[in-house]
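Input record, target 12 of the design panel.
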């Protein structure tokens, strides 16, 4: 695991304060061993931080952070950073932040980190941080599916511009985001101020401690708990199940819950069921995270699914707590829990 570099996605809708947050993060000493992939240098004010230019699209900042303009080709940017680090052409970095565009769906980038062998051999998704505008976020969630998806798949949600919003607006938006994504930690921010460590240490693997934090990553207790009688759906039920009501707001079409199985699960049966779900509902499976009690094994496995991609399995050294039940967290679009039950 030490040879794999964790990657954090920084996403958020247009005007939500993502670039302001990134500008502030670039000032933090916590990013001294971080490579940051940004969309355009023109939007991210780094001139006053610049120490030297490594190549046309890679620059080194005063705090040691490596800044790279992606210019639409993520795989090439990650490959170049890896080889420049190996050749000592840039300062050593132990993690990467990728800034997405305001209209971006985070899922394709998440897929790239696992489906492209050149990338998957060197990098691993650590977590997703999404910015939401406290003043305009509610309206954006109403009408823009991208804004909803960015918040729905996040591990951390940064509520920006809270100084410009009323207390009632903040409370209503916070409640809405907690219903949309119960497991995400909400962090309030003014002018991009936020603790860098709390934003970056979101993933399953904690590089500094060299440990796996499955419980904090999963946060199963934050979700509505379901205890189905059998392992995942039958194909006939899955093919006809939709959300039970016509819901005009995009965030109302997101459903988040945790499925628990007390008895051990046959691993192949679980994977077969997931692949069946993916075959007909992949685009609606925004994210599945889980810790699995595998039949015949003393140690649990960690499961991570985004749409059509099942990530490589992580075997834990031990259970993170006294609860040895399988817990699968589902965040889905236009589906209700009937497809599980």
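The sequence produced for target 12 reads:
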């Amino acid at each position: 695991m030490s040879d794999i570099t964790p990657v954090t996605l920084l996403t958020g809708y247009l005007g939500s304060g993502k670039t302001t947050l990134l500008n502030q993060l670039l000032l933090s000493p916590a990013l001294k061993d971080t490579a940051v992939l940004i969309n355009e240098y023109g939007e991210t004010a780094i001139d006053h931080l610049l120490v030297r230019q490594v190549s046309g699209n890679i620059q080194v900042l005063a705090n040691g952070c490596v800044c790279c303009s992606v210019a639409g080709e993520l795989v090439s940017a990650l490959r170049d950073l890896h080889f420049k680090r190996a050749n000592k052409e840039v300062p050593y970095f132990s993690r990467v932040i990728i800034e997405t565009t305001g209209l971006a769906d985070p899922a394709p980038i998440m897929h790239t980190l696992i489906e492209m062998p050149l990338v998957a051999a060197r990098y691993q998704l650590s977590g997703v941080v999404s910015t939401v505008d406290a003043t305009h976020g509610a309206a954006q969630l109403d009408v823009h599916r991208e804004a909803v998806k960015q918040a729905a798949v996040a591990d951390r949600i940064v509520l920006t511009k809270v100084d410009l919003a009323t207390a009632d607006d903040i409370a209503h938006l916070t409640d809405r985001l907690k219903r949309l994504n119960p497991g995400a930690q909400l962090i309030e921010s003014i002018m991009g101020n936020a603790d860098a460590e709390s934003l970056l240490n979101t993933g399953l693997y904690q590089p500094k401690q060299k440990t796996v934090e499955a419980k904090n990553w999963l946060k199963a207790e934050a979700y509505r708990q379901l205890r189905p009688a059998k392992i995942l759906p039958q194909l006939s039920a899955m093919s006809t199940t939709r959300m039970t009501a016509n819901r005009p707001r995009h965030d109302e079409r997101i459903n988040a819950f945790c499925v628990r199985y007390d008895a051990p699960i046959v691993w192949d049966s679980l994977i077969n069921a997931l692949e069946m779900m993916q075959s007909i509902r992949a685009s609606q499976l925004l994210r599945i995270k889980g810790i699995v009690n595998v039949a015949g094994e003393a140690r649990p496995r960690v499961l991570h699914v985004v749409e059509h991609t099942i990530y490589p399995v992580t075997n834990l050294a031990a259970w993170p707590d006294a609860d040895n039940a399988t817990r699968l967290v589902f965040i889905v679009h236009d589906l209700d829990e009937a497809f599980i039950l």
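Residues 45-53, 234-241 have pLDDT under 50 and may be disordered.
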